[in-house]
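Changelog-adjacent note: as of this version, every example in the card shows the full chain rather than a window. The one below runs 159 residues end to end.
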Amino acid sequence: MNAQMVMYEEEFTQITGVCERLTREADAKVVFLVDKNGQLIASCGQTENLDTTSLASLTAGNIAATGGLAKLLGEKEFSILFHEGEHDNLHITIVGGRVILVVIFADRSRLGLVRLRVKRASEELGKIFEGLLKKVEAPGASSPFAEITDEDIDNLFSE
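Full-length structure tokens:
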């Protein structure tokens, strides 16, 4: 998806629902979705003590660095990454070549279960983003910002 991705409320609600279900079903601490530029799209779970902005940015950087490694090895990309820590683990998946799905889970969760649930969630998210892309690119589709006038902008920034 390009850098000018527009998120509509309907798709955001669907995405959040998929992430919340994944959090429950994978027994994850946190699930978040990031675009490849490092912008946080959605997050759920135990995010209150996390710097999600930094996590999103560093995750995108990790994907970019791994992409460089993949190219050196003649691969298009490595679509799944796994980082095992002393207490927490990260499962990172590229969804539809567009966004990054990150699952943070503790040792009590099984990697196999996480991978199984992530696969299903990735398929659902891929469909949502595909639909969003079609919606934005449809002939005659208007921008969600089309009704905003210069006067609206001036009023927003006036004192």
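Structural remarks: The radius of gyration is 18 Å.
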